[in-house]
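Chapter summary example: a protein plus PXL.
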Amino acid sequence: MSPTPRTALTIAGSDSGGGAGIQADLRTFFACGVHGMTAITAVTVQNSLGVQGFTEIPVDTVTAQIKAVSGDMGVDAAKTGMLATAEIIEEVAKTFEEVHIGRHAEKPLVVDPVAASMHGDALLREEALEAIRSELFPRATLVTPNLDEVRLLTGITVTDGGSQREAAKALIDLGPQWVLVKGGHMHGDPRCVDLLSDGVQFVELSGTRYDTEHTHGGGDTLAAAITASLAKGLGVPDAVAAGKRFIERSVAESYPLGGGVGPVSPFWRLAHDD
Ligand code: PXL
């Protein structure tokens, strides 16, 4: 028998292609040595060429999954990804209060405000943006928007370090404890600079930009790696730094799969002993 590992819960959508969403979260949790648990919100039909459609899971089933695992197994940290509808967001937010997940409770919560796939396919109904802002952000320990999500949530188009800082302040005003404004989509920049802020400190995290188109699941993998570190007890700045190291290697070792965009790979973290 082994000691029980730390646990992490993801509330997100299934990617039939295995590279993003629930599947990205689970393989990252596994590679990071935490026990992963899932509350599935939607089932997407997709491959490397794009998302062909999705079906939401009934909202009571979504919240029942969260209650079932947190009541019995315990959740050391949680993250949200694709939440699909305003109703799911509102009920998940209420459930977080009940099971003590979120910035004002015992267990850290990472909110990755997934709005669209990298092909531009919608993963969130339009009216749900307001629910992300008003219900979820005030409960988040950390939010991790990319620049498209920043624009949708704040109206700010980030083009340089100054507008990235302005966006961080606008997002902190929505109530999360910390924000990580990811600079990966600022393509003119030869580095990949993310900005981490709690509204007082502004920390630039500079990383290598790899020349690959195979970055499917990159945002999910970063948020899941941060969540795993929070589950292990790290504070937010250390967990984000560890997550950033993790995603860099995962992007460096991404692979082609199918005729379109291949996934980032957390496999580097596992021993190759066969
Ligand atoms: O990478 C964002 C994302 C999250 N969740 C699901 C997805 C995607 C992107 O395609 O399919 C289910």
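Key point: The helical segments are 21-31, 59-72, 86-98, 128-136, 147-154, 161-172, 218-231, 236-252.
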